[in-house]
Amino acid sequence: MEEKRPTPQEALELLHEYNESDSLRKHAYAVEGVMRYIGRKRGEDEEKWGMIGLIHDLDYEKFPDHHCTQTGEILRQHRWPEEYIRAALSHGWGICSDLMPQTTLEKVLYAIDELTGLVVTTALIRPSKSVLDVQVKSVKNKWKDKRFAAGVDRSVIEKGAEMLHVGLDELIDDTIKGMQEVAEAIGLRGNPT
Ligand SMILES: [Fe+2]
Ligand SMILES: [Fe+2]
């Protein structure tokens, strides 16, 4: 079947069809926001970067035991380009897929997926509960505290930064800024001081 570039509207509809959970949707918007931000900063196809970020965990709600594999199936049914599918699946390299991130887009997605979780938790412990108040140093301060955002695997983020030849500070800064652009959608506008 012939491939067809999806539109952002189609990507969003697909997300809503497969993800009813508010937290999964917010995670998708956060990753989309960061992908758009970094894609734009690098002069890449921002819209494409955003769509791949948006649907990277598409199957997680309905097929948690077949994460990544089912996303591939669903996207193929919708005739998404193989390039997009490969990119989405490579975020789970070593966990639910054996596709190693190769392109810059894939490496960025791999590096920032877990990092968005760390930024969320950092925002939520601020009095304002706002991502607009999060700074690189507040995220760095919690890096070695294993009990803080315990589910976030720091080693994956570090591996991603290494693959990109980007420093952790820059990666954290970009992630915060990308999430700030979608603060409202991810429920982290809070009451900035
Ligand atoms: Fe995932
Ligand atoms: Fe994710």
Biggest sheet details: none
What value does the average pLDDT take? 97
Distance between the termini: 53 Å
User: Which small-molecule species are bound to the chains here?
Assistant: fe (ii) ion
Q: Supply the helix-strand structural class.
A: mainly alpha
Question: From N to C, what is the helix and strand string?
Answer: HHHHHHHHH
Quaternary? single chain
**What portion of residues belong to β-strands?**
under 5%
In total, how many beta strands?
0
Shape: globular
Work out the helicity level.
Answer: 55-70%
3D architecture notes:
This protein has 9 helices and no strands. By secondary structure, it is mainly alpha-helical. Helix 1 packs parallel to helix 3 and helix 6 packs across helix 9. The longest helix is centred in the middle third of the chain and has 21 residues.
Write the layout of secondary structure elements.
Layout: H1 8-18, H2 22-41, H3 46-55, H4 69-77, H5 82-89, H6 104-124, H7 136-141, H8 154-164, H9 168-181
The gist of it:
With 193 residues, the protein is mainly alpha-helical. The protein has helices at residues 8-18, 22-41, 46-55, 69-77, 82-89, 104-124, 136-141, 154-164, 168-181.
Main attributes of the structure:
single chain, 193 residues, mainly alpha, 9 helices, 0% strand, globular, binds fe (ii) ion
